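Writing this down once: the sequence line spells out the residues, with the fold written below as integer tokens. I am pasting one below:
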Amino acid sequence: MHTSNQLKRLSAALGCACLLVLPTHAQTTAEVTPEGDDSFYLRLSAGTQRRARASDSAGSTTFKTGFVVDAALGYAARSHHIEAEVSSFNNRCNTTDPAGDAIGVEPSSGNVDVDAFMANYSYEFPLGQGGASVYLGGGLGLHRVSINGLTTPTLRTLPPEWGGPVIVYAKSDWTNAYQLRVGVKYSPTPRVDLLVGYRRLEGSTLDINLADGSTIHPDARLQALELAVHIKF
């Protein structure tokens, strides 16, 4: 009987110890694996961008400041992020200088779109304990250019015997592209991140077939300032 009472008292003591240890263990586990560190997320972003002069043997075109919008599905594993991204850039044409001395530089109308599909990787460097970090990353993928109504006053009024009127609507094939990104991220809640950053995208030379049978070979070089939000799930 005495032994049975000792066993009962020992069992009760062990039970109390377990009740004391379990909350501490749960708290320690939560500190080691905080909520939201590993998660899928949706990124939505938009910003202003500038495109460098596009030129080849047929002439050159400059562009007005434009905009970019993009969306990405990503996965965050602590400080590492991988993404599949789709982007669209748009710029209105500013001036065009056809090759040769016959026309010269003129104001141009129309606009140019750049679409891109990219696979991205970035790494975050925490800035203290306030929920802010610096990110640095890059991406590889494909891009395509669409020319929508590019012309100038002279090209628009060229007579048929001189090959006019010239109003360019054309689209390139998909070619390789790469990009670099750097910026700052702030996490106001465990499930939402806010980002502001710089982005530079460049691609290999494009082949664009025109209606007259000729082919032009411009390039695309763009720089953007973007605001973005990550929504984790």
Notes: The first strand starts at residue 38 and ends at 51. Residues 109 and 202 are 24 Å apart (CA to CA). Residues 2-32 form the longest helix (31 residues). Residues 13-36 have pLDDT under 50 and may be disordered.
